[in-house]
């Protein structure tokens, strides 16, 4: 009973903080210079949401993040909290590839556009790939891009199929790919559930960068499989531990 009461209180507080955090963040974005939006403001807003939920993050492989050039982080997708975790812990300014439905949500749509989020139409993969112009602007301004190749959060915790878009984009934009494994964000908030569970320990494992610049279609498909296999190994290794 005590545990349920705590979850109820944490949930009410967290969703309240989320609303005010988003509104204040949107207001800040009106005045903040572009260079501070993703590097400082997004990290601060995301860190506040993690702090409110008592989330602790353990990061391995931080040395694999490239500090001097843009890159594409390709990560598994367990929960909404994945974006908050990566925004907070990655030591470079990032933006995200997000499904087009999110661009219809008031306030959040404004925030995503100001942060240079790239709109992805899951029903038209070719159109998503052709958003190379948007990605070029992102990389040209010194931002790195986070892509969730499953396209949506996993309800079971098992990896879904990985789409080729991130690898194709990396090849066209001539930027490296960095695989990232996110572990246990599902324990904070299960898919479709409103409940927030306090004090979860989340792991982030950052793998070595991959060069996709000179890959043909066959090599790109092979790389997608390699990235998925790497993330699966990390997930299984965590379970064993």
Examine the secondary-structure arrangement and name the CATH architecture: 3-Layer(aba) Sandwich
- What is the helix/strand order? HHEEHEHEHHEHEEH
Structural domains: how many? 1
What does the average pLDDT come to?
Answer: 87
Main sheet: strand order: 1-7-6-2-5-3-4
Total number of beta strands: 7
Q: And the CATH topology? A: Glycerol-3-phosphate (1)-acyltransferase
Largest sheet: 7 strands, mixed
Structure overview:
- With about 240 residues, the protein is of the alpha/beta class.
- It has one domain (about 1-240): Glycerol-3-phosphate (1)-acyltransferase, CATH 3.40.1130.
- Helix content is about 45%, strand content about 15%.
- Strands 1-7-6-2-5-3-4 form a seven-stranded mixed β-sheet, with helices on both faces.
- Strand 3 (about 95-100), helix 4 and strand 4 form a beta-alpha-beta unit.
- Helix 1 (about 1-30) packs antiparallel against helix 2 (about 35-50), helix 1 crosses helix 4 (about 110-115) and helix 2 crosses helix 3.
- The protein is globular and about 55 Å long.
- The model has no long low-confidence stretch (mean pLDDT about 85).
């Amino acid at each position: 009973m005590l545990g349920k009461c705590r979850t109820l209180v944490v949930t009410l507080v967290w969703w309240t903080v989320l609303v005010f955090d988003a509104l204040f963040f949107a207001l800040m974005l009106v005045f903040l210079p572009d260079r501070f939006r993703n590097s400082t403001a997004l990290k601060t807003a995301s860190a506040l949401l993690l702090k409110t939920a008592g989330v602790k993050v353990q990061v391995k492989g931080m040395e694999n993040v490239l500090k001097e050039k843009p890159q594409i982080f390709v990560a598994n997708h367990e929960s909404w909290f994945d974006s908050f975790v990566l925004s907070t812990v990655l030591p470079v300014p990032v933006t995200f590839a997000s499904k087009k439905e999110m661009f219809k949500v008031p306030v959040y749509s404004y925030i995503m556009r100001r942060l240079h989020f790239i709109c992805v139409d899951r029903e038209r993969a070719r159109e998503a790939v052709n958003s190379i112009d948007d990605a070029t602007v992102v990389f040209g301004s010194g931002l790195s891009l986070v892509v969730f190749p499953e396209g949506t959060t996993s309800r079971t915790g098992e990896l879904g199929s990985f789409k080729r878009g991130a690898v194709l984009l990396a090849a066209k934009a001539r930027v490296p790919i960095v695989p990232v494994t996110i572990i246990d964000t599902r324990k904070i908030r299960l898919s479709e559930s409103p409940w927030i569970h306090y004090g979860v320990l989340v792991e982030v494992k950052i793998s070595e960068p991959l060069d996709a610049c000179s890959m043909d279609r066959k090599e790109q498909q092979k790389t997608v499989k390699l990235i998925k296999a790497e993330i699966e190994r990390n997930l299984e290794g965590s379970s064993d531990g």
